């Protein structure tokens, strides 16, 4: 059990480290978004695009760290269950020995007290098992759209109140061109 407890500690530590890395990536994503706004304001679209790509990469990295943290948490919950089961098994052996001695003397108060202790240990195990199942059910996968860079650039330009003169795919230039022309009028 000592080795399993040590592994449990290491797993929990790793999950916290992954969470920390996810938060760090979130901060870096926000910094990149600020750089996008500055580059757009200066009219430097190439630099803005590079910062947008970096922001998307940081966002995806944060999600990956968070996903891995959830998986490590799930493994930690399983190890916790194994450690708890080992303790319960050891306690049950002691309870069975005590029950044998108690049954021989037929002291009903001792039997009742031992059964209460036995039930309490199983309730604790049920709570931990439920926590592990909840952790496993909360892990999800995310997908990212293809045009994230362009969407992020447009969002940053909108927030900065600037007009973004980007090349749009064919078929969309006519409607955007007329709306820009009418906006200028």
From TrEMBL:
Gene3D superfamilies: 6.10.140.1230. InterPro entries: Snf7_fam (IPR005024). One of its GO terms (biological process) is vacuolar transport. It comes from the Eukaryota. Belongs to the SNF7 family. This is CHM1B protein. It comes from Fregetta grallaria (White-bellied storm-petrel). The gene is Chmp1b.
